[in-house]
Every structure is written in structure tokens, then in C-alpha cells.
Queue: 3 jobs
Job 1
Amino acid sequence: MAAGTVRSRDADSGPRLHVSLPTEPTAPRIGRRSVQVIESFADPEVVDDVKLLVSELVTNSVKHATVPGGGRIDLVVEVLEDSVLVSVRDPGGGFEHRPRGRGNRRSGWGLYLVDEISDRWGIERVADGGTTVWFEMGRHSAAASAG
């Protein structure tokens, strides 16, 4: 089972969630369910998009990260003043970030969806050999802002 913590940050921000997920087929489901903590801090459409993208990134980590002996996937979701910032870290070696619009089909549709839905995203290699894929999106949907 996932071990997670949620803690308050400040008056302009919402919670910060950190969940350590197993590198097992159950990880995407656990990650999606964990994201429910942001429901009162973002529009429903944004929460749905975050859940979808978390599921895609965690699935990529389970499928593609070389994880000897089980390993863990770290999911961090931060509700900031105007946005939601999500990162998924695994012990895998990563891949090249391709510019927006060109897609990165190495991992199936996951990164394509991240590229299309999020406001911005990136890939960072961690000093210990791991990789973090992150994305950020506004807390309020365009439909809600227009209304």
C-alpha cells in the first residue's frame, strides 16, 4: 500500500501530497486515487486532467523504468497559488525531452497527453540516476474562467 502525507502549506496554497508507490500494476490506480486530495482546490475539469496525467506518468514508470528488486515511484502533487504542480520520479534512466508539438512516442500516448493537456512539462535526471517527469497546469479551467 502507498504511504502518503498531506500537509498544509500557506494561505495561498493548498496541500502538498507525497506518495511512494510500488512498481506494480496497482500503482496508477493508487496514484489517481491519491490525487483526490486536490478536489477542493481546483476546478473539477482540472482535477480530472491531473488524474489522467498522473495515471499516464505512473504507468510509464511501471512499464519503462528499470527497477531491480521492486523499487518505488514517488508521486508529488503540490497545489500552488494559481497552479497544480505534479512530479513522478522513478529510478529509471529517462529519455530525451522533445519540444512541444513533436510528441514523444517512445512511451505510447502518455507523454503526448501530457504535452497536449498540461501548461508546461519537463524531464529531469536526478543525481542518483533516477528520472523525474513533471507537469504544471492552472487550477482553474478555461471554461470556468470564461464564464
Job 2
Amino acid sequence: MASIFVVEDDPDIADLIAHYLQKAGHAVKRLTSGTEVMPQLRAAPPDLVILDLMLPGMDGLLVCQAMRADATTASIPIIMLTARGDEADRIAGLELGADDYVTKPFSPREIVARVRAILRRTQGGGDSPPPPAPTSTRPLHHDATAMRIHCHGRALDLTAHEYKLLLVLLGQPGRVFTRDQLLDRAWDDPGAVTDRTIDAHVKSIRSKLRQCQPGAEDLIQTRRGLGYLVEF
């Protein structure tokens, strides 16, 4: 029997997944918000996490990134679950460390089969996902435990949205994110704001980076007509 966290805010979907996993002999704990995940994982690490991409509080990509950045949770297998079928989202999840990716609508038996396959590999001596390389030597460093981002060793005083936005960029240095992609990942309701909201938040983050250390604002680069990226 394995211990599995199902992180899904839709109660019908969560009930369906939990029912089939419990029939297969697993112990299931259900969470409905992304912000609940890390404290619960540290308190009682499960054998596997099924993680919805669209979650209130903190989306699945950010949760996945936070898990892989924390030594206590870095090796826990993750199955991403989402209604999105866009290739870029699948690739982003896998690049951040997800072990598998299931798109809604899905067969609950398929979920059970994928869980069984991953647990067979991880609990049977197969290779587990490696912990991420230390990032403390970088000019920007994410402290997943404290949920703070440091610039040259100093914690930045960021708002919740500034933190989420910078965390998205920091998760994939060198990748250009469009404004729409940043809105989608850093805002619970991206339709309630405009893409110019991103520009305003980037300007504020750059100001705080400059206050931390002159020149640090250049870590966030603009690609005209495309979007933004973090470049070390």
C-alpha cells in the first residue's frame, strides 16, 4: 500500500481518483489548494503526488517547482493532471520535474496504472528523480522552505504576485515567457487583469532588484514583441 496525495480542487474529480486508488489498496489524502501542499508534504511525505495544474492559491507548476527545489520533497514522484492539452504546458511540467502527465478527460483505471508503474520503478530500486542542483551560488536563489527569493543573499520584499511571477521566470532561466503565459501561471484569475499588468509587476521587481544590488535589475531581460526571461 502506498500513501498518495491527490491535489485537485474539483471535488468530483478528486472523489473519483481517490475511489479508484483506494480500491487498488492505496491510502489517499486529498488537498484542494496549491498553498497547502508543501506544509503537508513536509509533515508527512507521501509516496506519490497527483497534482492538478490549475489550483487556487498556487498553481501546479509552481508547486512542482517548489517540491523539486526542496531536499525533503525533491524525490517524491509527481503525476501532473490537467485539462490542458497544450504541448508547451506538458513540456513545462516535465521540465520542472513531473514524472508523468495525464490530460483530462481521463480513465481512472489509467491513473491507477500509471501510479502502479511509477511506484514499481521508484520503490523497486529504479532511478528516482535527482534533486535539483544547488542554486545558492546564483544571483537569484529560491528558498522553497521559506517561500522567499533572495538576490545576492538578501531576501526580496515581494508581493504575492511578484513572488509567483519571478518564480515562474526563475524556474526556467533562459526561456522567454509571453505575457499571457505569465498571467496564466501567476494569477488565479488571469482574465481579470490585462497583459500590461505583467509590465507593471516586472517594473516593480526590477526596482527591488536594483535596491538589493545595482545592476541586478538586468537579470530580468525583455524580448521585444515576445515577453520576459531571467538570464544569469
Job 3
Amino acid sequence: MRLSLAGVGHRFGGDGRPLDVLADIDLTVEPGEFVCLLGPSGCGKTTLLRIIAGLLEPSVGTVDVGGLTPAAARRAKRFGLVPQTPALLPWRTVAANVGLLHRVNRRSRTVDPPDVRRLLEPFGIDAFADALPRELSGGMQQRASLARAFGLGAPVMLLDEPFSALDELTRADMQALLLELWERTGTTVVFVTHSVPEAVTLADRIVVMSRRPGRIAAVHRVDVDRPRSDGDDAVDHIRHVRAQLREAAG
């Protein structure tokens, strides 16, 4: 599903103490493309993700989600959203958390517990279906969050720094899992990160944003075959994007 943003800007605060967060955002994400938003803290990456998801109305500009407004696309279950923290309900088991969206979605009310448990298998957490979130590691909780988001088969996935709190090895495992899911499903992905190596590992294109108000300072295409290692090609892209980021933040 294609995402098209034209002249998007956002201001918080109205007539009190207005704060311009985003300005002049023009961006198209092609169907099945993996795009990372990268920029300094406070540049509006999460705000932009919320606008795409229909959770926030832009002050100016338009967003088109496969011919729908973001609000209409959200109502039509076109989005899967993965926040920074897993946001699992602590009193529900893993299976109950992952199956929650099916129970509240009218089109999926016939999904029974065995079907929900099968959703957990690709994420390696089917053995923990009856566990509570507090009994899982951070990486396992994030796997449950991904399973919940991917479970309804939404054509667009929006992820807001979902791996930032994980250790390096777990983060690498989660990146590999996400890429496997993306390649299997053909989902359009917009992924917010502060990490240049993570962006180079994951993205088809990296959108480098300036300091607030966030503008698109550069768009970098990562033309390296996946899986991407620490070889010279990947290192060259990391160096180039870091230079673009320094310039954008200057």
C-alpha cells in the first residue's frame, strides 16, 4: 500500500506557546517498501508516525494511505502499530494479549485460541502462550508485540523505535525477525530509529530529518543486498548517512 505525504507540517500549542514540530514534509513510500525515519531527538519522527497512523491531524498538508485518509485507513484496519514499549496488558497471558485485536475486530471474532497460538509460532513464543508479560524477557515481550501487530495482516506497519531498549544481540535477532516477516508479507513499513547502523541494516531508503521543525534533509537509498553484514559496503553507507545526519543536525 502506497503512502503519500504532501506539504505536511504540525504545530503544537495553538495560540498559547506554539511549537512548530514538522514543516514541509513531502514523502512517498511505495507499496512493500521499508523506510526508516532517522534524525536527532525532538525532530518530530514520532509525531510524523502518529500523523501517518491517523492518531494526530496535521496542522497543514495531506496524507494519503492507498486512496484513504489516515483516519479512514485506521478504521479499516490498514495499520499495524508497534510502539517503543511492548504495551502488553499485564493481567493477560501472551495468547490473550496477541488475540485481543482479533476479539475487538468484527471481521476476526471467529478466531479461536488454537488459531491465536499459531500466530505465535513464527515469533518463537508459542511455548509461552500461557505466560504473563512479567514472566518474559524484554525481547520476548517485543516478540509478542510484533505478533499482535502483524496478526491481523495489515498492509502497513508503523514501528516507533521498538528495539531501542534491547541489548545488542537481542536487537540483532529482532531486526532479523522483522526483516523475515516483512519479506514474507510484502508489508509497507515505516520504522523510526535513532540508530544509523539499524537504519542501514533494515531500510530500502533512509529519510534523514533536520532539527525541529523537522524537515526532510536527505533521502538515502541503501543499495546493498540483504542480509547486510559489517562488510565494506554497509560501513560505507553508515559513514555516508552519519555525515548526512551531522549536516542535518548542524
